[in-house]
Specification:
The structure is a single chain. It contains eleven helices and 18 strands. It is of the alpha/beta class. Strands 6-5-4-3-2-1-18 form a seven-stranded mixed sheet. Strands 7-8-9-14-15-16-17 form a seven-stranded mixed sheet, covered by helices on one side. Strands 10-13 form a two-stranded antiparallel ribbon. The radius of gyration is 22 Å and the shape is globular. The model has no long low-confidence stretch (mean pLDDT 94). The protein binds zinc ion (2 copies). One zinc ion (ZN) binds next to loops.
Length: 318
C-alpha cells in the first residue's frame, strides 16, 4: 500500500464509523452541592450534538468544560423536577442573544412548553420544535440514516423517561489488502461499504463480502434518568455500550431510595449486570454525600466495570 491508498481506505472506514462522546456537566441530584452541579449531559455524535437534561448552572459548566453548545440541535428533558430543567431557560435565552437561527428540537413533557413561553416573553431568534413525551409510552423520537433515539418510561415519583441513543453503523469495513489485491478503483470504495459487488473490465464479479468485513454493531448509550430499581428497564438497556443509571444513595439508605423512587449504587449495578451492559456510569448523588467513592466501591462489588462520574467527566466509544 502506498500512503495515498492507505489514507483513503482509512478515511472511508472512519467516515462510516461514527463515534460517540459523552460529557457529564452535572452529576448531582436535587440541588447543587459539594461543587457538583445538577444533571446535564452532552452527547457528541460528531455530526450532531445532543443535550440530555439541563439543570441549574449548566451554562457555567459548558463554559468551564469548553462545550460549544451552539452545536446542540436536540434537547431531551427526562422529567419536570427542577434539577433536570431549571438551566434550560437561561440557555435558550443565550442562544437567542447569540442570534441562533437553527431550529431547536425539544423532547419533553408537554407542560414545559407553557413554562418556557411564560418565562421567555420575547420572541426567540429561532424556532423551537416541540416533541412531547407521552406518559408511560415507549416512543421513537428520532430515526434518521445515522441515528435512532428512543424514549422509554422509568419508575420515578412523577412521569419520567429514559433515553436510548443509537448510532447506526450499517456501512461495511473495507479490507485494505483485498481492495488492493483486486485493484478496486478508489471511486468504488464507498459502494463496497454499501454492499455492492464490483465488476472488472473482463466482466468478473468480485463480491463485496470478499472486499469488506460486516459493519460494526451500533453504538448505544442509555440514560436512565431518575428511577427506582425496576427490572422493567432491562429490556431497553440490554447490551448497551454505556449505561448511565442514577445512584442517588448507597445501600444503607435503601429505604430512602425506595420511598423517594430513587436507586442505590448496588441497585444500579444490578441492572447493569442483568442487562449485560459493557460500561456502567453512576451519578445523581444525594447531597448528603460529600464524596462518591463509597458509591463506586459498592457498585463494583456487583458490576466491576463501573465509574462514579463527576462534573467534567468524559468518555468516548468508537
Ligand atoms: Zn433528579
Ligand atoms: Zn426526579
Amino acid at each position: 500500500l502506498n500512503v495515498d491508498d492507505f489514507t483513503i481506505i482509512f478515511a472511508v472506514n472512519q467516515l462510516e464509523n461514527l463515534s460517540m462522546k459523552l460529557t457529564i456537566l452535572g452529576c448531582n441530584g436535587a440541588l447543587p452541592a459539594h461543587g457538583r452541579f445538577p444533571t446535564c449531559q452532552i452527547l457528541d455524535l460528531g455530526a450532531e450534538m445532543m443535550m440530555i437534561d439541563c439543570g441549574e448552572g449548566s451554562q457555567i459548566q459548558m463554559q468551564k468544560f469548553a462545550v460549544r453548545s451552539s452545536r446542540v440541535d436536540h434537547v431531551f428533558i427526562s422529567h419536570m423536577h427542577g434539577d433536570h430543567y431549571f438551566g434550560l431557560i437561561g440557555w435558550l435565552n443565550t442562544q437567542a442573544l447569540m442570534q441562533r437561527e437553527k431550529v431547536l428540537h425539544l423532547y419533553c413533557p408537554e407542560i414545559l412548553k407553557q413554562i418556557i413561553e411564560i418565562q421567555l416573553l420575547e420572541r426567540l431568534s429561532f424556532e423551537i420544535q416541540y416533541h412531547f413525551l407521552l406518559p408511560n409510552e415507549k416512543m421513537v423520537l428520532m430515526d434518521t440514516e445515522k441515528y435512532k433515539v428512543l424514549a422509554f418510561p422509568v419508575d420515578h415519583s412523577i412521569e419520567t423517561h429514559g433515553f436510548l441513543f443509537e448510532v447506526k453503523r450499517e456501512k461495511r469495513i473495507l479490507k485494505k489488502e483485498k481492495v488492493q489485491e483486486y485493484e478496486i478503483p478508489k471511486y468504488y470504495y464507498r459502494n463496497i461499504t454499501l454492499g455492492k459487488d464490483y465488476e472488472t473490465k473482463d466482466g468478473e464479479i468480485i463480491s463485496y463480502e470478499v472486499l469488506s468485513d460486516p459493519p460494526k454493531p451500533n453504538l448505544k448509550y442509555a440514560y436512565c434518568a431518575d428511577t427506582a430499581f425496576n427490572e422493567n428497564l432491562i429490556p431497553y438497556v440490554t447490551g448497551v455500550d454505556i449505561l448511565f443509571h442514577e445512584a442517588t444513595y448507597t445501600k444503607e439508605n435503601v429505604d430512602k431510595a425506595i420511598a423517594r423512587k430513587h436507586s442505590t449504587a448496588e441497585q444500579a449495578a444490578l441492572i447493569a449486570q442483568k442487562a449485560g451492559v459493557k460500561q456502567l456510569l453512576i451519578g445523581h448523588y444525594s447531597s448528603k454525600y460529600k464524596t462518591t467513592d463509597a458509591h463506586e466501591a459498592e457498585a463494583k462489588t456487583v458490576f466491576e466495570n463501573t465509574i462514579a462520574v463527576y462534573d467534567g467527566f468524559s468518555i468516548e466509544v468508537k
